[in-house]
Amino acid sequence: MIKFLLILVIVLAAGAAVWKIVQARAEENAELNSISKLPASVGHVVAQMDTNTQAAFFHEYQKNKKSLVVAYVCWFFFSVHYFYFKKPGWNIALWASYFIALGFVWWVVDFFRMPSIRRDYNEGAARQAIQTLSLGSSFGQVHSPNPVPPQSGSPQLP
Q1: Cα separations (Å) of 130 from 41, 125, 136?
Q2: Extents of the domains making up the chain
Q3: Which of 22-36, 58-72, 141-155 has the highest mean pLDDT?
């Protein structure tokens, strides 16, 4: 009977993980380069940027943000999702908690917490992208992936 319950829990966890992955993929496709889908704390800053700076921001943000689909795959296989979010201490603590049987409960709770863990990480990545652009602009080094050529009457720098 215990084997049956264990197999049932594993099958249900796998099915729930697949469902969450499909749902996360659809959400990620909807949020590409959309200011309204950015965290509220940075969305208003990006909305005030000019088009070239917004393009540079989204380029930097896309490089550093994390995917919920990949996070669920990392969670399901080997419980390495905290490493994916650059929190190795939490991952080692999770693995250590498996020895006292608390790890499985933590693992299941993380299934439901994964969207908020990703949201927190991506908010930090968005803030970092803004900070990188601010630092680069103070040195005149903001590079847009699609630069706009200078207008014909503007002075050219050497």
Answers
A1: 11, 9, 10
A2: 2-30+38-138
A3: 58-72
